[in-house]
Give the backbone structure.
Amino acid sequence: MIGLQHYLVVGAILFVLGMFAVLTRRNAIAMLMGIELILNACNLNFVAFSRYVTANVEGQMIAIFVIVLAAAEAAVALAIILAIYQELRSISPDETNTLKG
Amino acid sequence: MTVTAAMFYLFAVLTVGSAVLVVTTRNVVYAAFSLMLTLCSVACLYVMLHADFLAATQVIIYVGGILVLVLFGVMMTSGKLDMKLRMERGRLIPGSLVGLILLALLIRIIYQSPWQVQDTNMLESTTKSTTQSIGESILGQYLLPFEIVSVILLVALIGAVLISRKEVKEIEES
């Protein structure tokens, strides 16, 4: 019988993988993919809780808001990455250590 | 093993396997396409959790929107032959150590916490679509967050356009 814990374990593995990507990648876009993995992990947890614990759609509402904010975050992050690339010809986070354009 | 359990394990293995590929592959285009597989299998897990509307939203917004955006970013920022991702040994060992410790801690917490789970026999009988109740929640209890989120989307849109456009002032002057 598949229960709450199975989904939570999948969410935990996704979260750890996303955090690993953010910690080890030296490419801003690959780090962004790690952040998307983290957001998906928390969404999976929200939906699992809304199915097994509260048994209504509240968790799904929060998940929808998280998806919308992920879209906004991806748009702004990619715009910043493009601006940095035009300035420095590199998107390694180690080399972008100045705020002045 | 029932069909439901087999389906769950299939999609769970697909999700985790493609996520591992996202994190470990050296080609950033491969990483983007395995991210697509991860997002689609998470949508399948949503379907198994009876969240049909959310699964459709996941496919439309993540796979159709965010992933295309990420691929655009990959295409526009990788130079001639710079598709390869470098992974430094010095960061690999501390990163995996922190990840494994955190995973062990999380799984221990998940299996030791006394979750207040509802009666599963009652849950299986409620298989109606969630779209109606989500719509009623958006225009009822969650009206204010909904409006705020729409303003945030507008702000993010304008901000992204402002940040990523080229400077046209100097061209006009010269």
In short: Residues 15 and 41 of chain B are 5 Å apart (CA to CA).
